[in-house]
């Protein structure tokens, strides 16, 4: 399908501010609250062209996302790939947008139509249904931050600004993630490309059908699912959620795609962007020549937060994490 039209910013005014002035002030404030340096490294971190950042409503995840975006180095970027999960329809494989631009309260970000066509011509991608594209939040929630960081790096909007390549990554097994990773690896190796991976971490609660409990606050131990009858607990539920998320983050930071897949198989942690993360991890392994190191494709986590601290089975929470990788 030929690309055309502008995707509307359907979540502006609800999930985040629709006023450009108010939104700009909010994003600036969150970015300013991030330290100027982390672990002795000044932000943005040179060649940190890949980040993982959350996609919930900004009142929940906006401050956490700022840590990833402040680390992101867009100085050489000519295009930004945005990988997210599909919340609006069941997707196997991966899918590409059919729009030529995406609206934000600041203005429109242009889609790199040529790159999208090149990916589509591989025959490996489907097209995102246009109504699903407009309903999906996992890509849209990153666009205001992307605009802000492009503006901070490259100045006022112009034809020379980096374009975007929106991709939804579906419910794929490990081998399929590696297949898409191999396809994207050449783009990772090009210093003119940056990547934003959209994911929240643990979604805990009965409304998410995930109530795994970790009895020991310092290790995984034997997992069990809680019911509303479970009231006498060894440790706070939120401490166990932290353990589950830390194990997932450790697996991502290991640089080994197989280790991340294994962790999720063991815990069933409801990391909604598990497949975009899996694809980018597989791509980073290929791009790094099979040996992922701190300065060559290995993720480092900057921030971890939760929407609330769960005390009982009646509660729920969503976890957020921000990370970067130098490549």
From TrEMBL:
Domain of life: Eukaryota
Matching Pfam families: Memo
Gene3D superfamilies listed in its UniProt record: LigB-like
Signal peptide residues on this chain, from the entry's feature table: none
InterPro entries hit by this protein: MEMO1_fam (IPR002737)
Family of this protein: Belongs to the MEMO1 family.
HAMAP family, per database record: MEMO1 (MF_00055)
Name of the molecule in the record: MEMO1 family
Biological source species: Coniella lustricola
